[in-house]
Amino acid sequence: MSSGRDRGALAIVLHTHMPYVEGFGTWPFGEEWLWEAMAGSYLPLLEILDAGAPLTLSLTPVLCDQLEAPGVPERFASFVEQVRRHTHGEDAAGLRAAGHDELAAEIDRSWEDYARALDGMKRRGGNLSEAFAAHAQWTSSATHAVLPLLATDAGVRLQVQTGVEAYRRRFGDWRGGFWLPECAYSPSLERELAQSGVSSVCVELTGCYGLGASEHLRPLATESGLTLVPIDRKTIALLWSDDGYPARPVYRDYHHHTVHHHNPWDNGGGAYDHARAVAQARADASHFVTRTIARLDDANASTPGGLPAGGLVVCAIDTELLGHWWYEGIAWLGAVVEECSRQGLELLRLDDALERIEPAAVQDQAEIPEASTWGTGGDLSTWSGPPVCEMAFGARAAELRVLAAPSAGEAAVRELLALQASDWPFMVSRGLTVPYAEERFEGHRRALEQALDGGDEPDLAALRNLAVDADPASLRLVP
Question: Which of 1, 103, 206, 420 is the most buried (most CB within 10 A)?
Answer without folding.
Answer: 420
